[in-house]
Each structure stands twice: as structure tokens, then as C-alpha cells.
Design a protein that fits this description.
This protein is 22% helix and 29% strand. The protein has helices at residues 26-32, 41-61, 75-88, 170-191, 210-215, 222-227; strands at 3-15, 66-72, 95-98, 108-113, 118-119, 125-128, 139-146, 151-158, 197-202, 218-219, 234-236, 245-248, 254-256, 260-262, 265-267, 270-275, 285-294, 331-337. The longest helix is centred in the middle third of the chain and has 22 residues, at 170-191. The termini are close together.
Length: 340
């Protein structure tokens, strides 16, 4: 029979520690400036509670076995988030896989995982620096061990934003994509050619953009990934959503698929990418492409009106809505592990 692992990814939108946090460096205080003013412990905790309610409802109320997040400031807020989810899901005891970034705004990538299913041994968390003149977030690689002793390399991504213009900023995402492609290949060289690899993240580009197709070497064609003989490719499991629809609204109108809205246009920026050792019929750890979905529950996660964008919590210089969540929707998927 094997096991089915439930995965999720979410850009949780500026989950920062309180304004006067003793856990913040002087350098970061200067970088944040006035944007952090008014961010009280009460607002921080309210945002964490809002996020936890969504995460606990994922996968029909079971919650994810492995959750990747980005736009989190530090281990303190991550621990608080894990504890809030644990309170809602008594059967869970989420642990953290996290490392501080050198990002100028101090926002990190991390994984929350169920230690009953996965373990992370010492020295198996890596930060891969994206080389560019102005600092950007590293890629986070965690080598998880499954209960059956299989090593699974998972990459968390939060590529440079489109601020300043999509095309003007595209070279920065190309560099991040090349970094992912390089370390994808290194995993297979170091841990063996049969090692399963999964990348998830907020790529700030859509599946068809050049950063993903030409630089990260991802594709919509499973056969291309399986047939690659030189540089390894990734199967973009989220591609079918791009330009498509994700159900219908209360009026029966189709909802454009998107994890992020800009100028009321839906964009699929949050994605799952699987390496060849996760997509073969006999792969011990196999991604289930038909399971990928955009999470739109609970109902308060979706803005009312003509454009069903996610409801942000705000902060960091933006108006705060204490009934909000994030400016991105989460995404989920299933991974099946065959019996040993």
C-alpha cells in the first residue's frame, strides 16, 4: 500500500516579529525603518492565529505533513506558528527546518514537518547563495529522511520580486533559477542518481516564463524530464493551472487560477517542481500531479467581489486587516511512497 504524504507551500506575507523585538539585529532594524512601526505583539499573534486556522484545515482537516513557507522573519515566529497549528491539530507536533537568510529585509524560507514521518539529521540543511550585486534570499535545501530511510532533497524558493518591472527584474530570477538547477544536479551527484528531488516556492514568475523553462530547466512535459540525459530537468506540476480555471464562483462563473493577484490579474507564482526520480511509474517516492490544487478555504481567505484575490493581513506599511491572512493563496499536493 505505501504512504501518502500531504504537502503544502505558502507565502505567508511578512510574518514579522513585533516592532521592538529583542531578537532583531541593529542592521535589520535600520533596514526595516518605519515600515515595522505599529506592528504590535497582538497583531503578530493575531496573524499567526489566522494562518494557523487555514493550515489546520488543509487536506480535509489533517493538515500538511510537510509545509514550506516564506516571508517569515525568524525562528521565534516560526515556532509560534508551529505551536498554534499543533494546538488545532493535537495529533501533530511540527518541527522546524530553518536557517537565517542574509536577505536585506530579513525574510526567510523554512519548512514545518511532522517528525513522525520525516527526520533531518545534523548538517542536512543548506542555504544556497544566489550571487548578485544586491542581496537576495538564498535557496533553502533540506535533505529529509523518510521513515523508510529514503533521502529526499526538498528545495524552498522565494525568488526576487517583480518590483521595478517584470522584465527589468527578470535577470535576477534567472540567476536564482540557475542556482536551483545547479544544486539540483549536485544533489544527484552527491547523494546518487536515484535521489528524489522536489522544489516548491514563490518563484515570482509563471510556469511558462524563461526563468523556469530555460534556467531552472522545468517543463510541462513529463517525458522530457524522464528522457533528460545531461542536465536534469524538473516537471512543473503546477503548469496545468496557469491560464486555466480553478472551479466556479457562486454565480457559476469560472474562477481564473492564480495564487497571487496583481492589478486584478491572476498569476500562478507558487509552484511545485518534481525531478525525474519522483515521476516514474516505479519511483519509490512519486508525485501525484492530479493532486495539486490552490487552497481557497476558509471562505474568508477569498476577497468578495468580481476578482477573487486572497485577503491580505497587511502590515509593513500597508493597512492592516485583522480578518485577513496573506496576499498569496497556499498550494497543496500529494506524494506517494511505495512500500519498502
Amino acid at each position: 500500500m505505501g504512504s501518502t504524504y500531504r504537502l503544502a507551500w505558502w507565502n505567508v506575507e511578512n510574518l514579522f516579529d513585533e516592532e521592538d523585538s529583542p531578537r532583531r539585529s541593529d542592521k535589520l532594524k535600520r533596514a526595516l525603518g518605519k515600515s515595522i512601526q505599529g506592528w504590535t505583539p497582538e497583531l503578530r499573534d493575531r496573524k499567526i492565529a489566522q494562518l494557523a486556522t487555514v493550515i489546520a484545515q488543509m487536506h480535509e482537516g489533517a493538515g500538511p505533513d510537510l509545509l514550506g513557507v516564506c516571508e517569515v522573519e525568524n525562528e521565534f515566529v516560526l515556532t509560534a506558528l508551529a505551536e498554534a497549528i499543533n494546538d488545532l491539530l493535537p495529533g501533530r507536533d511540527y518541527r522546524l527546518a530553518h536557517a537565517d537568510t542574509v536577505d536585506r529585509r530579513g525574510i526567510d524560507i523554512a519548512f514545518l514537518y511532522d517528525p513522525a514521518l520525516f527526520t533531518v539529521t545534523e548538517g542536512q540543511i543548506f542555504q544556497h547563495v544566489v550571487m548578485r550585486r544586491t542581496g537576495t534570499r538564498e535557496l533553502l535545501q533540506v535533505n529529509f529522511d523518510t521513515a523508510d530511510g529514503l533521502t529526499w532533497a526538498v528545495f524552498g524558493n522565494h525568488w526576487p520580486s517583480r518590483s521595478g518591472g517584470q522584465f527589468e527584474s527578470a535577470p535576477y530570477r534567472a540567476v536564482a533559477a540557475e542556482t536551483l538547477a545547479y544544486f539540483h544536479q549536485r544533489v544527484l551527484e552527491v547523494h546518487g542518481p536515484d535521489t528524489p528531488v522536489l522544489a516548491m516556492g514563490d518563484f515570482n514568475d509563471e510556469p511558462h516564463d524563461r526563468s523556469l523553462t530555460q534556467h531552472a530547466l522545468s517543463t510541462r512535459q513529463r517525458t522530457k524530464v524522464l528522457a533528460a540525459t545531461t542536465a536534469p530537468r524538473l516537471w512543473n506540476l503546477t503548469w496545468p493551472l496557469a491560464g486555466g480555471h480553478d472551479g466556479a464562483d457562486e454565480n457559476g462563473d469560472q474562477i481564473p487560477a492564480g495564487t497571487f493577484y496583481f492589478n486584478n490579474y491572476a498569476n500562478v507564482l507558487d509552484q511545485f517542481l518534481a525531478g525525474k526520480n519522483m515521476i516514474g511509474q516505479d519511483s519509490p517516492l512519486r508525485a501525484e500531479p492530479g493532486s495539486v490544487r490552490i487552497v481557497r478555504e476558509p471562505a474568508g481567505l477569498v476577497a468578495p467581489g468580481k476578482y477573487p484575490a486572497p485577503v491580505p493581513f497587511g502590515g509593513m506599511g500597508k493597512p492592516v486587516n485583522t480578518d485577513g491572512y496573506s496576499d498569496h493563496y497556499p498550494i497543496t499536493m500529494h506524494v506517494h511512497q511505495a512500500s519498502a
